[in-house]
Amino acid sequence: MNGERRHWWHFRIEDLLALGKTRAPLYIYNEETLNEIYFDLSALDVVAELFYPFHANSHPKVLRKAFEQNTSFRCNSLLEIDRLREILPALDPGRILFLADRAPMKDCEQALKQGVHVATRPRKDTTQNSLNAIEGKGVSIYMEKGGTIVPTASSNRAARGIYICPDARFSSLCSQAEKISLFRELSRNFPNVSILTLGNDVSGKSDFYGDKWNISEIGHDLEAIQDACPRFELRLELPIHLVSYSGALVVKALESGTAEGGHYVRIHLPLNHSLIAEIHESTHHLVNLSRPGFQNDIMIQKVQPQDHSGSATMYLKHPCPVSKGDILLITQLGAYSSQTRSTEITRNRLPELYLKARSLCPVKL
What we know:
Elements: H1 8-11, H2 13-23, E1 26-30, H3 31-42, E2 49-53, H4 60-68, E3 72-75, H5 78-87, E4 96-99, H6 105-113, E5 117-120, H7 128-134, E6 139-144, H8 153-158, E7 159-165, H9 176-189, E8 195-198, H10 215-228, E9 233-237, H11 240-245, E10 247-259, E11 262-268, H12 273-281, E12 285-288, E13 298-306, E14 311-316, E15 327-330, E16 346-347, E17 350-355
Parallel strand pairs: 1-17, 2-3, 2-9, 3-4, 4-5, 5-6, 6-7, 7-8, 8-9
Antiparallel strand pairs: 1-10, 10-11, 10-15, 11-14, 12-13, 12-15, 13-14, 16-17
């Protein structure tokens, strides 16, 4: 690897090659990576509670892993809540946050009756009777970065906390000073609120790829927020880019070459609209698992179907040495996108596999 940082797929290469030869194409989620992510986030002393966003990846084993790590959950609908509790019957409903952005008040009331916490926007059409019905029952105010909410006496009394989406990655998309200014304003406007939950961009996009997920950067941001607003108890939703890093799509190569000055690889992959949209929605790289000595992962520019042959063509930013039969991996696909079509047994009509850890995550002292 010539000194290049080794990602999780380099450590599981034998497993991935064996699966690729017999079962590709398929999605794979690596439990070892999830273990490490949960360990690193849980080690942040400033984080009082972690939340897993149900829509990020609702594969039952991924959800069970979050449950085993004592993580809470964020759901976007009553249907998601029902599905989550079906998969995890032992889950305390108090560990669920219902992000009821545009849900009718009756859905909020139904969730509250189940013991679920609710985050909703204060709305002009909210009647006083509705506010009285939800007051003091675990309601948080939902807002996005840049949004302005002027609290009313009723919303301030009813609010248990604030759920906010500072940005998709909670890192470099806005400066630390901007975040601090925003949270100080919230602290002044809502003096009765003691809980601040930092969430993800609602779109669920995951445009990230680097040498290491930068959990230390998240920790530094959170510590700065707590120093500026010590009254807030900070809760963190698992960043989408970390969920995405834990999974990949394994495919088999059919041929490679150049056309019109560009580089391409044809793969066995029956494309559909949702799968095309999923790959195009964020940044992915191509890794040739059959050539582990090759030092660079290649950025994918676009993917398009090859007639009705059950194959697809990937156009690459740089050439990638590929031979027919090579097993390839498309990175950063552990999280669903807004276009993903999922059933209980497939994702975008392709199978999913949860790759069990070979050992527990090592303790770091």
